[in-house]
Amino acid sequence: MKIKEAVDWGTKQLKYSSSPRLDAEVLLSFASQKPKTDLYARPFAIIPTLRTKKYKALIKERAASVPIAYLTKQKEFFNITFYVDHHVLIPRPETEAIVKNAIELARKKKIKIIYDIGTGCGNIAIALAKNLPSAKIVASDICRQALSVAKRNILNQGLENQIEIVHSNLAEHIKTAELIVANLPYIPEYYRVSKDILFEPQKALFAGMDGLKFYRRLFKETFPRLFRGTVLIELGTKQYEPMSNWLIQHFSNVQTTPINNIDGSICGLKANFS
């Protein structure tokens, strides 16, 4: 099979994907171990038989809605390539806004220790460490398999001396903190998600009827030890107001502000305790 034929065939097989041709190109590049630029430059080159078989197998899995990142075992976040598998959520673009806010705050206040709760594959912790070389990052998760993935990524980036991995439930390991970043499950249980999302770990996705169960628990556990500090969390646009109202009702010294995505939509909340 020639490269152009393979891409055209894969595109037809993935007609229900939101980006069938791009998916086909990414998977062919991965299966053939060639950059996409080679595919464009040599459309009539013959693909070796074994590579063709691997490509067709990948297309079959993608047609069944398996996420591209799980098939290629990698995902880019903050211009860093991460190893991912079915034990961790796939990093999303909106999380970058949370990281940018954390970097700005840490630089402004010269914060030396940052806690990343629900680290998953370690993408937030690693992005923070690379942009804040003088800060220590404590990355925690309740899932040991996720921590194994995070450790692999931390070692790949050579950041094992800057990032500490902790097996912990929410904030139970934190005695005091100036800055906490948390990306916890926040999808409401009733919410209908796309098929590809259902391949991701369900415990890392859903959080009660309104999706805010774990964040409420986090703040209840964290506040007595924070006194003065900031918590940055990722959530859905419609969840900002109820989360903000809950915080104001329960804590007299909190000020909340929205975190906006690149398109202006709300993707997170900043809670300042003074």
Characterise this structure.
It is elongated, with a radius of gyration of 21 Å. Helix 1 (3-13) crosses helix 2 (20-32), helix 2 packs antiparallel against helix 4 and helix 6 (95-109) packs parallel to helix 7 (123-131). 41% of the residues lie in helices and 18% in strands. It has 2 domains: 3-64, Ubiquitin-associated (UBA) domain (Helicase, Ruva Protein, domain 3), CATH 1.10.8.10; 78-273, Vaccinia Virus protein VP39 (Rossmann fold, 3-Layer(aba) Sandwich), CATH 3.40.50.150. 36% of the residues are buried. The chain is of the alpha/beta class. It has 10 helices and 9 strands. Strands 5-4-3-6-7-9-8 form a 7-stranded mixed β-sheet, with helices on both faces. It has a two-stranded antiparallel ribbon with strand order 1-2. Helix 9 links the parallel strand 6 (179-182) and strand 7 (229-234). The model has no long low-confidence stretch (mean pLDDT 94). Its EC number is 2.1.1.297.
Features:
274 residues; single chain; Helicase, Ruva Protein, domain 3; alpha/beta; seven-stranded mixed sheet; 10 helices; 9 strands; peptide chain release factor N(5)-glutamine methyltransferase activity; 41% helix; two-stranded antiparallel ribbon; Rossmann fold; 2 domains
* Overall pLDDT confidence: 94
Element string (H = helix, E = strand)? HHHHHEEHEHEHEEHEHEE
The count of helical stretches stands at: 10
Class by SSE composition? alpha/beta
Helix content: 40-55%
CATH topology group of the largest domain: Rossmann fold
| Order of adjacent strands in the largest pleated sheet | 5-4-3-6-7-9-8
Overall outline = elongated
CATH class of the largest domain: Alpha Beta
- Major sheet attributes: 7 strands, mixed
> Termini separation (Å)?
65 Å
Looking at CATH, the homologous superfamily of the largest domain is: Vaccinia Virus protein VP39
Give me the Rg, rounded. 21 Å
Count of all domains: 2
Low-confidence stretches: none
* Name of the CATH architecture of the largest domain: 3-Layer(aba) Sandwich
Total strands? 9
Strand content: 15-25%
Enzyme class: transferase
Catalytic activity: L-glutaminyl-[peptide chain release factor] + S-adenosyl-L-methionine = N(5)-methyl-L-glutaminyl-[peptide chain release factor] + S-adenosyl-L-homocysteine + H(+)
Keywords: Methyltransferase, S-adenosyl-L-methionine, Transferase
Protein name: peptide chain release factor N(5)-glutamine methyltransferase
